[in-house]
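Subgroup meeting minutes
Present: P.N., E.W., G.H.
Scribe: E.W.

1. P.N. recapped why we're keeping a running log of single-chain structure predictions: easier to compare across weeks, and new members can see raw inputs and outputs side by side.
2. G.H. added today's entry (440 aa).
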Amino acid sequence: MRVCVFSHSYVVAANHAKLERLARMPGVELSVICPRRIRREFGTYPVERTHHSDYAIVPLRALYTSHNYRFLYLAAGRALAQLRPDLIHLEEEPWSLAAWQAIRYARGARRRPNPLPLGKGAAEGAGASSALSRESAELRAAGEGGPKVIFFTWQNLWRRHGFPHETIERAVHAEAAAAIAGNAEAAELLRQKGFRKPIHVLPQLGVDEAIYARRDEAPLRRKLGLRGFVIGFAGRLVPEKGLALLLEAFAAVLTRRVDEHGTPNAERSSASLLVVGGGPLRAELARRFAQPPFAGRAVLLDTVPHGEMPRYLNCMDALVLPSRAAPHWKEQFGHVLIEAMACEVPVVGSTCGEIPNVIGDAGLTFPEGDAAALAAALQRLMASPDLRADLAARGRRRVLERFTDARIAQATFEIWQQVLGAGGAGDSTTRRTTTSTRKH
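Output recorded in log:
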């Protein structure tokens, strides 16, 4: 089977672990199309990997890459016409312009494919209109018997996207043979929108269990000035991640006179807070961390490279994800949870979105927005080394069973086989870990 994965996520080399495993599946000829560079809040990032011995990487020029849903590839149709996939695996939201480009190709490929050379001109268009004009001609030449399409979605809130995005979404739903939802609520939302083809509940990316594993980082803890029970957060520093709630709970923990062994302590609670990430709240956090009661107890670090993240997770005695829903967002997965669980760091999460499904019985949850309940959960962990050890073991086991790169790749491969073998017909929702159908 020739499969082309269509996604901006693979600008980041660390995200290729799933692709590497998929490329080694029997009978798979894999390619990935991604932008040459993307723009984000903190700068422009070029594609980090342009070659792999096991699969083709096709970085294309793209316009408007600061917008996940509005960016547009130059000459995507030309690239697809050369690759001639049997299946397009679209890891873009189904209302995005990139999704529209993929289904344009699939709909246009109705005769035997006539491959076109993928030369420099394919990625060097002068602008969107000229690129789309060339692409239309390429689609007319591409031929019958075109590829099947599946798409991935994280979206777990009903939102109005306006024209042309809602038109694109309906077209993608009509063209697709199946869908992959990154969380249970996204699957339910697809059903509410009338999608009646197979839906598989599966996260987009897993973790490498060899990299995300328990290790002794005592020297790094000392270097950072962390002491006692270390409560951690890693992620975007934005209001909806619940950072204000975390600070309120941490302040309550500091007033409780008990140390990390559950022993009464005449002084303040022996605890530290480590926050790793970047975003608009960074300046406010830095200001608060310099004031009582956080001064000397809280450490703020900028975003660290993917490869360094396991070191900082292993500095923590517990990781907290206190997300709170906003009108435009609620937690879609919480990838840092499975990273921490793989490192045998106990996790505490709110009931926002998919968090309880990710944690399962391998951590503690508290009602969204309840700082007192979060503080109580942290105090439980501080007071019970046995509970911490039990949750650490459960977390690692849950990741190995459900969330490794190998597990996600195997489940994805099985979806490909179903779509190409049975045509993707039917009306079913499958919750996958790999071969398992339990909720992840």
